[in-house]
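S.,

Sequence below, as promised.
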Amino acid sequence: MKSMTKLMVVAMVLAAALVVAPAAARTIDTNGTTVYVGEENINFALGVGTNGFVSPSATAVVNKLVHYSDPTAGSIDNTIYTTDGKLSELTKSAVSTKTGPYYVFTNETSGVQRSDAVGYVNIEIPDVTLDVVLNNSRQDSVNGKSVTRDNLLAFKLTNNLNGFAGDANAPKMQIEVTLPGGGVTTTFGSNNVGLKNIAVDGSTIYKGGINLTDVEAGTYTAIAKWPSGTDFYGKGFDSKSVTFEVLTKKLAISSNKDKVVRGNSFTVTITGESKQQYRLFVKDASIASEKYPAIATGQNGLKGAYNATYNATLKGYYDEGTFNSRDMIVETTAGGTRSIQFNTNQSTDDRQFTIRVEDPAKTSTYDEVKVKIEKGEVTVTASGTGVYYIGEEITLSGTNTDSDYVYLFLTGPNLGTNGVKLDALNTEVVNGTASTFTRETVEIDDTWSYKWDTSNLERMLDAGGYTVYAVAEPRSKDKLSDIKYATVAVQLKSAFITATTSGATVAKGDKLTITGTAQGDPDNVFVWIFGKNYYKLQQSETVESDGSFEYKLESGDTKDMSSGQYFVVIQHPMNGGAGVTANATGFIFAQGITPVNLKSLPASDAATALINALDSPYVDDTYTKITFVIDEPQIFIDPIGDKEAGSKFTISGTTNLAVGDKLIIDVTSAAFQPTKKTEASGFGSTSGTATVEKGDGTNKWSFEVDATGFKPDQYIVKIESVETDTTQTANFNVVEPKPTTQPTTVTTTQPAGTTTTATTTAPATTPTQSPGFGALVALAGLGAVAFLVLRRN
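The prediction came back faster than expected:
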């Protein structure tokens, strides 16, 4: 009994040894043999015959394999050493990235020159690729795709291990399939195709005819692996995995959208048998053909319009009649799927459609999906507040999800019941012709915008309320019941102009500025000026974006203008440019009036003739009138009076000079004269500038004087305007400051019991000094100055 037990143990040990026994060692004795990284127990023998290594002697042993960076003449970049001509394993670390030819050297070979090698071997990394394909074509991969149970599959294994060709002891692979439930098997399909012991020798191997009839639905993963006991087991040389899905339903259809706004597309996906043709169509809805969603042409998988002729031999349908873009034959991919796009437009009916896919050979095999087509929406808004001056540009904008264009028209007083084109007010919209509307393209983000220039119309709009319509199709107001549209109200006001001058009276040599506002967004206004023998006709001035304008008469202009009143007319051109124009000789022209030569008329008559032309019913221009007066420049000094030496005081006055003008002011002593450089100046002076400011009625100016250092004397004030070349003077006296005397209290000590009396001393009286001799001399000079001023005035 014990002997039997011992025999059983020995048998089990031998059996276990057989299971884990390594692959048979390979002897490499042929020149050019391919050896693979990961191989074990390799014996490099010198061999015999013409295909063997060239041995220098019968006792030589291979001791190293040498790789050159350049096989023709390069240097060594890797060397692999053997032990007595053997390698227990050709490891990744020994080879690194240096694959390709390695030259064989023996222990009797001198040096490492390539010419000394006894031969060479190729070292490669084993590479295996797995794919899953349709068995009938073996070209259509279903990796990452879905297949139905009606298909036969095949596993396709390719490799680079041609070095094992003809070797009965070459290592073999197996394909492991992971089932949807997680289990792993090496037999797969209803017919249990075996996936073990697959020889790999450089050829392409197919394990095909796999039947899916009874397999579990779900996702499968497969990988080609080196099993335990092979040289490459666990060394990272297995294939990458592939996946595929087995479906339970033979034919199905789905849509990426349940609802679609017409004008947009949707896509249906068919899932069926691989490389199978099916009929795809929109079920009959008893409407015109253009109202159905249409299959977009030119897509992959479309085989033509459906008809009743089916060629069983060619397995296809062919168009023998009128093309119907909602009824097509489509062919699935190798994965058994196909996605097809349907397009819609504003002609597509807004309803629910049923999309059906069926097997033409067996119409009871079908599936359906419902897609609802909806009308889009149209919106419109107007820029700003909704109130505009005629002549302004109004931006109309909005969205349109119903069509590719938005159609605009206008309704309002006396414009026609059904509306008119925005830029052609005399054209009534009476039908669906697109050209009778103002049409604007809808952008890819469903927005649109149109700039309506109310200054460039073929007829003048009256002030009042109007309505702008934005419509998805070219429909007039009386045909909007079944179409998407939106409206916006706009209130138009008559444009007008206002203006004013920088001053009612302008001194000669001063600037004059005319400012104002021109509503209605004109590019410019025109300034007309009339005076005694003076004409400036139709001077153009730019209007800013906020409606403001500014026209200037420079100092050089007013300097030579005669004193008197001037008339100004400022013309607003309204629509279509100026209705009244002037030529170089002074004639004005306008529709409905006789040309008039303004330069032949007095100023007031010329201004009246221009206004009469602007008031013509044939002229839509508006205008405003203002006047100004040119006067001789004048500066007035308010009475100054006597000022104390050392005090601070203000000299002021009025003038007809313009606000902002600069006045140069000098205050000097009437006795001012040169002094010796060894003496201090005997009298004070000051100078500076003052700016003309706006006053009540007349403009004003003022100047602060610091009389510190001024000695009592008579002083002259000189005011000068450089712009207008105007001067004015005045005199005043600086007197001694009045001293301030404090009361003096004397205290006397009295015997006890007596009363103390305080005595107050009256302040001393200081006599007032008269101006000195210098002041008397100055008075004579002032008389002469006064005479000159009077003479000038």
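Confidence is low (pLDDT under 50) at residues 1-23, 308-323, 754-793.

Coffee later?
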